[in-house]
């Protein structure tokens, strides 16, 4: 998800300050028929009786334990600017097929953690304290899973959009994971940290330079850059997934004889972009390259019948990808009461 100036403004606004922001104008996640929008936002923010329980779901990959943890969702009002190369009526038909609302898209955010023995590794951070009130839930999901942010030894970042990196720091700029080394893709770091690129930003992407530089600028001593095709941590290999952003990266995770792929933002919501892999969300910086990457990776995981996790899929955001017709289909994993025997 790309952050433009409008969403940045929304991200830095909190609670009552939301009036007038994109999120409040859209009615947020809950408003029906334009009624009680602000009240709905306040209720969600206050962890009232209507709020969902913390979301955490575990499974094993070999000796690793994966825990998917929801950071919540944001509702994006749907107009013809969201899918840049499909008509609004086609997009609405796809949503209807998936039994989803047709006037807005609920976009989920799903970081995951990996316990490998020595390490507790977090992949992407959600919004933290700086997002819409219906996001920023990672912390309580971690608590429900028995994890403390101070236990996280490594944070791995797929790309530098706000919904993936804002949770690295508090509103005051303090580290949320004080004991963690932070791993970032080398080409992503090079692109967003460059003052030359910042001076000539691609259309609508200017605000993301400020965001990336404010978050990573102060992290030098705890920052490690990795390259594509490098197994930069035992069992974790960075895979080139450029297009969504210049350094967008996905991760092959392997232990014993089991393997999975964390697809990050290879696709946004599966009801639209897994079913219709040639459609481009407005967040894809290089839409043609992102489309090629999407086909390459979805072909790979479907042919290999590999388990996947994906950041913008409905919680718990894990399952498989099947080829179907011109596109693909997301097949959610079956919920399991125990961690073994489900690969
Ligand atoms: Zn995203």
Explain what the structure shows:
With 343 residues, the protein is α+β, with helices and mostly antiparallel strands. The two termini are 30 Å apart. It has eleven helices and 16 strands. Strands 1-2-5-6-7-8-9 form a seven-stranded mixed sheet. It has a seven-stranded mixed sheet with strand order 10-11-12-13-14-15-16. Strand 6, helix 5 (138-144) and strand 7 (154-156) form a beta-alpha-beta unit. Mean pLDDT is 88; it is low at 1-36. The structure holds zinc ion (ZN).
Distance between the termini: 30 Å
- Count of the separate structural domains: 1
Report the sheet-strand fraction. Answer: 15-25%
Listed once per kind, the bound small molecules are:
zinc ion
Q: Can you tell me the CATH topology?
A: Metallo-beta-lactamase, Chain A
How are helices and strands ordered from N to C?
HHHEEEHEEEHEHEHHHEEEEEHHEEE
**Strand line-up across the major sheet:** 1-2-5-6-7-8-9
Main sheet summary: 7 strands, mixed
Global outline: globular
Which class in CATH terms?
Alpha Beta
Unreliably modeled segments: 1-36
Give the averaged pLDDT, no decimals: 88
Query: What Rg do the Cα atoms give?
Result: 19 Å
Number of helices: 11
